[in-house]
Amino acid sequence: MKPPVSKAKPVRPVEQTFEETRYLKYLIERKIPVCVKLVDNELVSGTVEYYDQRFIRITRKDEPNLFIFKHDIKYLYEAA
């Protein structure tokens, strides 16, 4: 009897440019205010204090700080 043959395609390694990491470090070091648009169209503003592989931490004035999962972010931009 033959062993079962896997029909799954091999996973290609994801090319990493580390631009996201560089940009987040830039925002943190300069304490640049940002606006984060979430996938549910909610808009959150504050400064990025910390980031990880899965989430970012937004520090806000007079409001609770937030941990936002990256998969919940539609886009992020620097506040004017």
Indicate the CATH topology of one domain: SH3 type barrels
Proper CATH architecture of one domain: Roll
* Unreliable spans: none
Secondary-structure element sequence?
HEEEEE
The number of distinct helices, counting runs of at least 4 residues, comes to 1
Assembly state: single chain
Helix content: 10-25%
Strands side by side in the biggest sheet: 4-3-2-1-5
The major β-sheet equals: 5 strands, antiparallel
> How would you classify the helix and strand content by structural class?
alpha+beta
What is the overall silhouette?
Answer: elongated
What's the CATH class of one domain, please? Mainly Beta
Could you characterize what this model shows?
With 80 residues, the chain is of the alpha+beta class. The protein has a domain at 32-78: Roll (SH3 type barrels), CATH 2.30.30. 15% of the residues lie in helices and 38% in strands. It is built from one helix and five strands; from the N terminus they run H-E-E-E-E-E. The chain has one helix spanning 19-30, and strands at residues 33-38, 43-51, 55-59, 66-69, 73-78. The chain has a five-stranded antiparallel β-sheet. Strand 2 and strand 3 form a beta hairpin. The protein is elongated. The model has no long low-confidence stretch (mean pLDDT 91).
